[in-house]
């Protein structure tokens, strides 16, 4: 498996596949403490903002390192606002089987075990923000792409979801891909280092 070889040539096939699954599901291992997350801390967010996280888990450093330019985060979701609730739409799967789907969860659930988070925004009109939200919600329930293939239209992984939503909404390539050892993928840093994205929040949440 190509991504597995990128992570480590010396790992067994089982562990290589496991790391690939974890990379795009944002899973975390270990005894991480939970962090309080009052929603008013994030009352500045708008529909279509991207939220990134990095966990403290055993394998976090491996899937973080798949990014080409900046190796910091391990997972991404799209922020939506529903009746004053801040929700995150993201593609997630079981750590070992790779079986999962796109789902919508409260923001505190998305970041509760992850001490390092950041939020990025592509500056656009409020109308486009609503379009981003609507397009993202059409993916809810779609299967997780455990093959990490950009040619599949019925399955997506987390960064592929983000790329599809933004590129379709703006009808142009807002988020590109990276080719690593001949394999085309959407990396975490492809999403927030794209032109016109600005960082609006960056915090390493301290344990209490």
Give a written overview of the molecule.
- This protein has 208 residues and is of the alpha+beta class.
- The chain has a single domain, classed as Alpha-Beta Complex (endopeptidase fold (from Nostoc punctiforme)).
- It is built from 7 helices and 10 strands.
- Strands 4-3-2-1-5-10 form a 6-stranded antiparallel beta sheet. Strands 6-7 form a two-stranded parallel sheet. A two-stranded antiparallel sheet has the order 8-9.
- α5 packs across α6.
- The protein is globular, with a radius of gyration of 16 Å.
- The N and C termini lie far apart (40 Å).
- The model is unreliable at 4-16 and 24-37 (pLDDT under 50).
Task: Give a summary of the structure in a few sentences.
This protein is an alpha+beta fold.
Oligomer: single chain
Give the overall average pLDDT. 80
- What gross morphology would you assign? globular
Number of DSSP helices? 7
Q: Which CATH top level class fits?
A: Alpha Beta
- Using the coordinates shown, work out and report the CATH topology: endopeptidase fold (from Nostoc punctiforme)
Class of secondary structure makeup? alpha+beta
Work out the number of β strands. Answer: 10
What is the percent of helical residues?
25-40%
Biggest pleated sheet:
6 strands, antiparallel
| Low-pLDDT sequence parts | 4-16, 24-37
Please give the alpha-carbon distance between the first and last residues.
40 Å
Named CATH architecture: Alpha-Beta Complex
Assign the CATH superfamily. endopeptidase domain like (from Nostoc punctiforme)
Instruction: Give the tally of structural domains.
Output: 1
The spatial strand order of the largest sheet comes to 4-3-2-1-5-10
Strand residue percentage: 25-35%
